[in-house]
Amino acid sequence: MLDGGSDWQTVRADGATTLNVRLVLKTKDEALIGMTYRAIRYGPSDVMARIEKGEVVDPTSYYFRINPLFETANANYDWLNRMVAVGSGHRQADGPIYSVFEVL
Q: How would DSSP label each residue in 34-75?
């Protein structure tokens, strides 16, 4: 992931956090891939408070889902331009980790 992306987070009145993220990925073969996604993270208030403090908590104790879209001009990764994906996430101390899956 390259520097310079944006990550807007909104904590709603119901305690859920929505994310609106834009970033650029750089592959090992130097291809650039734009990735945008919306996400929602929600769970018990004590679990969410621990996450906000930077603690690592069991990912099964809260809901964290994303819907990424990809854009690239690189022919090797052109298939990403036509793919719909969903993913689940969990938060580590140094940031989120996502498992992303193509919707078939």
A: EEEEEEEEE--HHHHHHHHTT----GGGSEEEEEEEEE---G
Looking at residue 54, its pLDDT comes to 86
Q: What is the model's pTM?
A: 0.86
- The torsion angle over the Cα atoms of residues 6, 3, 87 and 72, rounded to 10 degrees, is 100
In a domain, residue 1? The reply is: no
- CATH code where residue 86 lies: 2.40.160.20
Collapsed DSSP state (helix, strand, coil) of residue 84: coil
Give the side-chain half-sphere CA count within 13 A for 24: 10
Dist CA 92 CA 23 (whole Å): 19
